[in-house]
């Protein structure tokens, strides 16, 4: 008789995998890629070695899955914030930058994995990392192309890479600084978004809606819909 997985069993398996992934993200974020081991992930998750290898091939595999999960979480946060920013492309770009930075500041383990730990690893992991960055670049390129008529002459593809690169490098330097010497995440977000907007010819202060305002508006709307 063929073995069948019931919905209840499938849900339990997904929960088990999610727990392993959650523990892995915490360990990779706090200890780093090289210091984190499969036995440590197994032990802290209360799982077994056999169960780990049922869901993941090795440490590289669970790190790659961690990166993809982080990319999806960030994409969800960005889409939600941009939807709250309205239809103006510049406002959406500003809010996207600030939301990205504030999200990472509020999720330090995920931030270190994406910005710090994922650099300089195996070709497979580099490919996953690059795919996330490329996705961000494509989004910026599309936004720039949509408003190219109102901007100084520029190459959207090149400028998109500069835009995303400035964000990632600035966040990297911020994460690597001692916590007691860091500027606030809000200030960092405001400085980077302002720098990028000036870089494409937008006047400072012409688009004042911030990520905090967009998220607050979205939360207010959600409460109104539930009332």
Write the layout of secondary structure elements.
Elements (H helix, E strand, L loop, with lengths): L6 H25 L6 H8 L3 H7 L3 H26 L4 H18 L1 H10 L5 H24 L9 H21 L8 H15 L11 H16 L1
Helix pairs in contact: 1-2, 1-4, 1-6, 4-5, 4-7, 4-10, 5-6, 5-9, 6-8, 7-8, 8-9
Report what the structure shows.
There is one protein chain. With 227 residues, the chain is mainly α. The protein has two domains: 8-56, Arc Repressor Mutant, subunit A (Orthogonal Bundle), CATH 1.10.10.60; 66-214, Tetracycline Repressor, domain 2, CATH 1.10.357.10. 75% of the residues lie in helices and 0% in strands. It is built from ten helices and no strands. α1 crosses α6 (108-117), α4 packs parallel to α7 (123-146) and α5 crosses α6. The longest helix has 26 residues, at 59-84. The radius of gyration is 20 Å and the shape is elongated. Mean pLDDT is 90; it is low at 217-227.
């Amino acid at each position: 008789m063929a073995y069948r997985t019931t919905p209840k069993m499938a849900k339990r398996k997904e929960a088990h995998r999610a727990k392993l992934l959650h523990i892995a993200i915490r360990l990779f974020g706090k200890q780093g890629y090289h210091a984190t081991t499969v036995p440590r992930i197994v032990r802290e998750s209360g799982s077994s070695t056999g169960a780990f290898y049922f869901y993941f091939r090795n440490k590289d595999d669970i790190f790659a899955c961690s990166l993809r999960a982080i990319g999806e979480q960030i994409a969800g946060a960005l889409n939600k914030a941009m939807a709250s920013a309205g239809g103006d492309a510049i406002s959406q770009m500003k809010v996207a930058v600030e939301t990205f930075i504030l999200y990472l500041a509020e999720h330090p383990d995920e931030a270190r994995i994406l910005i710090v730990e994922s650099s300089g690893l195996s070709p497979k992991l580099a490919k996953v990392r690059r795919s996330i960055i490329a996705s961000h670049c494509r989004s910026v390129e599309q936004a720039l192309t949509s408003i190219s008529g109102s901007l100084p002459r520029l190459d959207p593809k090149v400028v998109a890479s500069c835009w995303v690169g400035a964000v990632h490098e600035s966040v990297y330097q911020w994460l690597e600084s001692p916590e007691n010497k860091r500027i606030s995440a809000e200030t960092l977000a405001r400085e980077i978004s302002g720098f990028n907007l000036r870089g494409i010819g937008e006047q400072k202060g012409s688009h004042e809606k911030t990520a905090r305002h967009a998220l607050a508006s979205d939360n207010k709307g959600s409460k109104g819909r539930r009332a």
